[in-house]
Design goal:
heterodimer, A: mainly alpha, B: 601 residues, Methanol Dehydrogenase, Chain A, 6 helices, globular
Chain lengths: 114, 601
């Protein structure tokens, strides 16, 4: 009976949770390792960085997270290659949207901005 | 003796006879015929980037998993790919251009070579300190360093055998291209089109590094190894001799001396015709008003005799470039039906957004069609004159200096840059990584100073408007008809070289760092996220009965690669890109080669 309920409820829940679990473990681990590294590899950031990626995962499907974080990252590239990410409005929009989502998650998880 | 075995014997005798005639030939072409090897950067002489291996198929590609990884220890952009010969892999890195020989058995380092190069070469490299890979022949590994040194190493020990300088970084000359081995020669080019260098291609002796011939892209006929009566070009719907001073006549004064026409792309070679094919880059400066004329032979496909260097035919794709549409992209040799008739064709996806199919024997123009529908700077290529029909409002020359020409497609990146396409003889189609980016372009007046950038324009780029919103596509192209077969949209430009295989799988990498496998209809079968953006070329080989797929990732963006590099402080990676730091302190970590295989059953 319970499973019937779940099936029934699923469509209603879709818009909020459809992508909640689409982050591969490797994607989360990659984020946490990198985030810990940014904070001098202190153990407390295992918890704080995990909290951040879990929040990002609630805000964005994995593919969007990857593309948007790459857009932000590649703005630091030198020369013509970086210009595409600095100039192009699509890339710039992705980058700034991601920056805002990550900043919000950082705040909620008590991760200071760096 | 049966007739068959008699014929067999005759064949052996013939082979021995021709073998003797070409005693000095390299073993590169022979090694590349064994699909277990990946003995040349493009896999073969034709630039096919195709493999006969078929353990990995469109059915099982979804099961691909990481077999091993190897870090180069260098940050910044990683282009090109590894070579595999027998049980050894040879891998390069961007500046400082390290070379590794790896045992495929356990990935242990057999030897490592790191040249000493003056870091002042870095600021004169326009577009990142990339290197497009190594070449192999007769037990030697060849490296074309950033500082224009061409070096031969003993493939067994990594010891230097010979070295030669092919250019001068003090006047803005650098090298990023892979050296190419054709028959008994090694060919290399030059980069620096943004610094007013004079482009050329040169052939050296494999064994000694002795210069055999050098052919410039611009200037007097004798410098270009051009015969005014015998070198042909497409003229009024047929082939005709280029005539005397074909380059000099198309420049003002002695501007040809700074004329650009660099040669940093992917060359190919047809042994039957003994002809080498390559393209030349943009004319300097970017400001077109400063260099009136067609600026020959920049932006040109060249066909040259390998032994003498003499130009057999030329075709200029973008006369008087106004947008930086370098013509250096790979020349793919394919025997295909063009408009119903079998041809020995040369297929070239140019930066200018047109895909050209030429008769590689005669140099005739057969097909020139847009391979991205948004291309707008020209309406079409006039098939009689061979000239693109430029749209006035997108002409940065007509609009003049200090006027911003808006909405030009493609951008200066081109519809495609150097990242090579793949041709599958099995499907008869070309698989092409592309940009879907447009630009606003504003030229300005500039004076030439040796060793300083000679660009003279500012530009801004954006995703092609009124399209899918992404900045790239991966397409399949029919070069016989000049038609797109399918197009798969990508969020970012596709800057990775493609690979197609007899297993009916096509591979390419993305800037997000995904290595993707698609079937022959462009349907995505599998993707895997590597540590950084992919601008390297996908390769495949077989070792101990198993097929492997390998690709370099590492675009130079700091965070992801910083992680892969194991940098302990967050700002180390940033410094390496932002201000440029000493790379020497990084150990064997950095850009990453990720290798995939099917899981053991």
């Amino acid at each position: 009976m319970k499973s019937v309920h779940v099936l029934f409820l699923l469509p209603l829940a879709m818009p909020l949770t459809a992508w909640a679990d689409d982050y591969p473990t490797s994607g989360r681990v990659e984020f946490v390792l990198e985030c810990m590294q940014k904070h001098d590899s202190k153990y407390e950031y295992l918890y704080k960085c995990s909290c951040v990626i879990d929040r990002i995962a609630k805000a964005l499907p994995y593919d969007d997270y990857v593309a948007m974080s790459v857009a932000l990252r590649n703005q630091t590239l030198s020369g013509e290659r970086g210009a595409v990410f600095r100039d192009a409005s699509t890339a710039k929009d992705m980058a700034s949207k991601y920056k805002a989502i990550e900043a919000g998650a950082d705040k909620a998880c008590a991760v200071p901005q760096r | 003796m049966s007739l068959q075995s008699r014929l067999g014997w005759w064949g052996v005798c013939l082979a021995l006879a021709t073998g003797a005639a070409y005693a000095a030939d390299s073993d590169t072409a022979r090694l590349s015929k064994d699909p277990k090897n990946w003995a040349m950067q493009a896999g073969d002489l034709n630039n096919h980037r195709y493999s006969e291996l078929k353990q990995i198929t469109s059915k099982n590609a979804k099961d691909l998993t990481v077999a091993w990884t190897f870090s180069t220890g260098v940050l910044r952009g990683h282009e090109g790919g590894p070579l595999v010969i027998g049980d050894t892999m040879y891998l390069h890195s961007p500046f400082p251009n390290k070379v590794y020989a790896l045992a495929l058995e356990d990935q242990s380092i057999r030897w490592k070579y790191e040249p000493k190069q003056d870091p002042t070469v870095i600021p004169v490299m326009c577009c990142d300190t990339v290197n497009r890979g190594l070449a192999y022949a007769n037990g030697k590994i060849f490296l074309q360093q950033a500082d224009t040194t061409l070096v031969a190493l003993d493939a067994k020990t990594g010891n230097e055998l010979w070295k030669v300088k092919v250019g001068d970084p003090k006047i803005g000359e650098t090298t990023t291209n892979a050296p190419h081995i054709f028959k008994d020669k090694i060919l290399t080019g030059i980069s620096g089109g943004e610094f007013g260098v004079r482009g050329r291609i040169a052939a050296y002796d494999l064994n000694t590094g002795k210069l055999l011939w050098k052919a410039f892209s611009t200037g007097p006929d004798k410098d270009m190894l051009m015969d005014p009566a015998k070198t042909m070009t497409w003229t009024d719907g047929k082939m005709a001799p280029v005539g005397a001073d074909s380059s000099l006549k198309t420049w003002q004064g002695d501007q040809w001396k700074l004329g650009g026409g660099t040669t940093w792309g992917w060359y190919s070679y047809d042994p039957e015709l003994n002809t080498v094919y390559y393209g030349t880059g943009n004319p300097s400066t970017w400001n077109p008003r400063q260099r009136p004329g067609d600026n020959k032979w920049s932006m040109t496909i060249f066909a040259r005799d390998l032994d003498t260097g003499m130009a057999k035919w030329v075709y200029q794709m973008t006369p008087h470039d106004e947008w930086d549409y370098d013509g250096v992209n790979e020349m793919i040799l394919a025997d295909i039906k063009v408009k119903g008739k079998p041809r020995k064709a040369l297929v070239h996806f140019d930066r200018n957004g047109f895909a050209y199919t030429m008769d590689r024997v005669s140099g005739e123009l057969l097909v020139a069609e847009k391979y991205d529908p948004v291309v707008n700077w020209a309406t079409h290529v006039d098939m009689k004159s061979g000239r693109p029909q430029v749209v006035a409002k997108y002409s940065t020359d007509k609009n003049g200096p200090d006027v911003n020409t808006k909405g030009v497609c493609p951008s200066a990146l081109g519809t495609k840059d150097q990242q090579p396409a793949s041709y599958s003889p099995k499907s008869g189609l070309f698989y092409v990584p592309t940009n879907h980016v447009c630009m606003d372009y504003e030229p300005f007046q500039i004076e030439y100073t040796a060793g300083q950038p000679y660009v003279g324009s500012t530009l801004s780029m954006y995703a092609a408007p009124n399209s899918h919103g992404g900045m790239g596509n991966f397409i399949a192209w029919d070069a016989g008809t000049g038609k797109m077969v399918w197009s798969k949209p990508e969020r970012f430009s596709v800057w990775s070289g493609a690979l197609s295989t007899a297993g009916d799988v096509v591979f390419y990498g993305t800037l997000e760092g995904y290595l993707k496998a698609v079937d022959l209809n462009g349907k995505e079968l599998w993707k895997f996220k590597t540590p950084s953006g992919i601008i390297g070329n996908v390769t495949t080989w077989e070792y101990k009965g198993k097929q492997y797929i390998g690709v370099l990732s590492g675009i130079g963006g700091w965070a992801g690669i910083g992680l892969a590099a194991g940098l302990t402080k967050g700002n180390e990676g940033l410094g390496a890109v932002g201000g440029y730091k000493d790379l020497a302190k990084y150990t064997e970590l950095g850009g990453v080669l990720t290798v995939f295989a099917l899981p053991n059953r």
